[in-house]
Amino acid sequence: MSMTPAVFFLLLAVAFIATELLIMQFSIFWFFIIGLGALDAALVAWLFPSLSWTSVTGLFVVFSVLSAVLLLPMLKRWQAKPSELAGHDAIGQEVEVLEVVSSLSKGKVLWSGTEWIARTENGEADFQAGDMATIRKVEGITLFVGR
C-alpha cells in the first residue's frame, strides 16, 4: 500500500505537534506552527485526493507560512505579558523550607503541597529547615526565595 499525501501530512502534523508538546518550550512554537500547516495540507489532500504530491507540498509551505504570519504576532503579545505567564502567580507566596537553602547550594521548599528546588539570590541570608520564606522569582523549576 502506498502512502497518500493526506496520510503523510497527517502523520507529519502529529509528529510536529507532539514534539512541541514534549519539548515544553512555550517560547518557541515553531513545531506547532509547522504542524498546523501540515494539518491543513492533510485536510486539503483528503478533500481533494487527486492533488499531486507537489501540489500538497506547496500547500503545506503556504499554510505553514500563513500560520506563522497569523499566530506569531499574537504569541509575541502573549509573551510580552510576564505577569500572566505560568509560575508568576507564585511570586509573593510563602513557602516552608525543608532543606537548607542558600545562594551557593540548592535546597528544597514546600509550596502548594509540592516539594520544589529552591535557591536564594546572591547576598540573601541562608534559610534553615523549618524557616518560612517568600518566593521572589521563578526560573524553570527553581524557586528563588527571600525574606
Number of helices: 3
Helix and strand content put the structural class at: alpha+beta
Distance from N terminus to C terminus (CA atoms, Å) equals 66 Å
* Strand line-up of the largest beta sheet: 1-2-3-5-4
Helical content class: 40-55%
Largest sheet: 5 strands, mixed, barrel
Shape, principal axes of CA atoms? elongated
Number of domains: 2
What is the H/E order? HHHEEEEE
Number of strands: 5
The portion of residues forming beta strands comes to 15-25%
Which residues form runs of ≥5 with pLDDT under 50? none
Give the integer mean of the pLDDT values. 85
Q: What's the alpha carbon Rg, rounded to whole Å? A: 23 Å
Short description:
This protein is of the alpha+beta class and 147 residues long. 44% of the residues lie in helices and 20% in strands.
Descriptive report:
With 147 residues, the protein is α+β, with helices and mostly antiparallel strands. The protein has two domains: 5-80; 89-146, OB fold (Dihydrolipoamide Acetyltransferase, E2P). The chain contains three helices and five strands, in the order H-H-H-E-E-E-E-E. A five-stranded mixed beta barrel has the order 1-2-3-5-4. Strand 2 (107-111) and strand 3 form a beta hairpin. It starts with a helix and ends with a strand. The model has no long low-confidence stretch (mean pLDDT 85).
